[in-house]
Amino acid sequence: MHGNVWEWVQDWYSKDAYKASTSIIVDPKGPSTGSARVYRGGSWIYAAGYCQSAARLRYAPGDRYVGIGLRLLREVP
Predict the structure, then answer these.
(1) What is the spatial distance between Cα 17 and Cα 5, in angstroms, rounded to a whole number?
(2) What is the DSSP letter of 13?
(3) Is the pTM for the entire model greater than 0.70?
(4) Mean pLDDT in each 10-residue stretch from start to end of the chain (77 residues)?
(5) What Rg do the C-alpha atoms of the chain give, in angstroms?
(6) Positions of E strands within the chain
(7) Of the candidates 74, 77, 7, 12, which has an alpha carbon nearest to the alpha carbon of residue 40?
(8) What integer pLDDT is reported at residue 17 of this predicted model?
């Protein structure tokens, strides 16, 4: 989850979902509904500090931006 574009993820954004913790957080989950989706991973257009898989920001689902892409995933049964 990092490279040339930010990538949309399925989670809805919540400022409380990714609070700092003393333990390792694996696959954090946001709320079940909301008005903004999470995108993560960094982009060529942002500062180097954002180019990490832990970087998470938000946009409304219909918003478009040159530095945001997506990755398709297919689960194998």
Answers:
(1) 23
(2) P
(3) no
(4) 71 72 66 86 76 79 80 81
(5) 13
(6) 6-12, 37-40, 56-59, 68-69
(7) 7
(8) 64
